[in-house]
Amino acid sequence: MNKRSPIPVRLRAASAAFLVMSTLASPAVARVAAQRVDWPSPSGDAGAMRYAPVAQINRTNVAKLSLAWRWNTGERSVAGGPDQKAARPGLFQASPVVINDTMYVSTPYAAVAALDARTGRELWKFDPEVWRLGQPSNGTGFVHRGVATWSGTQGRRVFINARWKLIALDAATGKPIPSFGRNGEIDLTAQLRRRVNRAHYTNTSPPVVHGNVVIVGNGVGDRLRYRNDPPGDVQAFDVVTGRRVWSFHTVPDSGEFGWKTWENGAYSYMGHTNVWAPMSLDAKRGLLFLPVSTPTNDWYGGERKGNNLFAESVVALDARTGRRIWHYQIVHHGLWDYDPPAPPVLATITWKGRPRDVVAVPSKTAWIYVFDRVTGQPIWPIVERPVPASDVPGELASATQPMPTLPLPFARQAVTEADLIDFTPELQQRARGVFAQYRSGPIFTPPSLQGTITMPGSIGGAGWGSTSYDPETHTLFVKATNSPALYRIQRGTPNDTIGFEYTADLVHSSIGVTADPDSGMADHTPPEQLPLIKPPYGTMTAIDLDSGRQLWHVTFGDTPSIRQHPLLKNVTLPPLGVAGAPGGTVTKGGLLFATGGGGVLYALDTRDGRVLWQFDLPAGRGYANPISYRGANGVQYVVVATGGGENAELLAFAIDGGK
What we know:
Number of strands: 41
Structural class: mainly beta
Largest sheet: 5 strands, mixed
Mean pLDDT: 92
CATH superfamily: Quinoprotein alcohol dehydrogenase-like superfamily
Distance between the termini: 45 Å
Oligomer: single chain
Shape: globular
CATH architecture: 8 Propeller
Strand content: 25-35%
């Protein structure tokens, strides 16, 4: 058994160079500090614009970008044994925070490291050792996407939500703060409305800090489907003491607003309905925006009839009290795993000649839902339209679903025979054979016993990092995925993790074209499947939020595993694009940096989506949103998390390597 920690050093003391600058001692120091442009939250700002207001790197010189430094997480897999469950770090998906030339980053194992943001030198590292309990049950494995910080008279604190723990660290040393909760941490399940299995409670997105409260959601794996599974309550805690300040019930309790939308008492035992995706904050107004996820048993709702508020909704809360201000449900009685997966984007647009503050909500449905930020009134009409009914026993799908009129969909919303792969006549014939076995139809065609080909699939449309926004041009950039899913409802025997008679067959939810059994090619030849549909599999779209119209739409990225497939040898392929949840970061220099989930970091021209620079990632994959900032040395950096497992590292780029 491997008894070593997957992180070689649990905690390293901060060097003197890491001391936070609290005063500007001289005009020279003031000039240096004036050069610095921080990246103060994982999404760049509290409103999730993912915008860097620096232009040292721009369209004219981006070709000179090269590696400035790199940092490896040092994490490794842990073998199972008598007193240790097996664990392995997943993809490195974090977007770091940069404040005063210090970078704070979470690792796949939910450890936190502080680095010199100019050199990548490690200052300290803290490991909460949540890997000791083995793999989480959230379907993604060990991943984490960022930290939150707070500054006050007690100094600066870094918050990490690691599985069921919320931990407060001293930003100067990386040590837990004893006065916060118990020895620096609190149990996020301790004050939930019912007892839960802590092993089924996870966190992948960063907390949000507003004033003196730190706010957290939670994640529950979609594959966990049983009565009284963990609820998705959003909780706020005092940043100094750890005392709980408020809680918002995403599944309303008896008598609370919306509780009657869970018929036959389903509100009392249904869970999930959580905020696993990043939240966003209008700090000036104190408005917190929640992208609320799917309810228990995503694909079968016979045990939860009704519209099921606040599942698959955007909810605006008073961040100080947790009081609901407004909400809008984008999917009624969800059956498709169509949760809003990304932080709502807070933007100011020009509407009828005047500035108007809005919130733009990306979704897996491939629509952007745009609302007045204060009232929740849609900017463009959202129309309730009839959708197909379900014939699954006990199911009662909603008769209508809300569909925006603008902006238009940014990804495909159906699969027809005309969409099927046609790289060769043989592949097209095989795709037609697969397609004919199942149902298909427009968006919101419900899952079925026969099996329904659903488009968009489970990762969208939009994913958890899909959008960025340029506040100068009022342009929203959205990375999309075109990848269908097969949702087949089956009857089974309830067990420890599936407590309902009907549920979806997720083992076979991936749908594609496999090798011909008569071809002599084994089914296990990597990759096992080719896509069912024609490319592009990933796109980038620019949307003018003043008008709601698309400015440009391009195929984004590539998928070498398809291009190199043995069945496609000597076949000339079009641009393929890449499927994946991460999106981009836009800069004042007119550039959009993104991987889209693939193995290349690109810089696109924000005017037309043209590729101006690209870099093949050594780890072969980048599944995180890049960040960009400028240090006190006057150098602008672009940093992206890459790889995973034992090959997870940050790569930092600068013009001529920052020399």
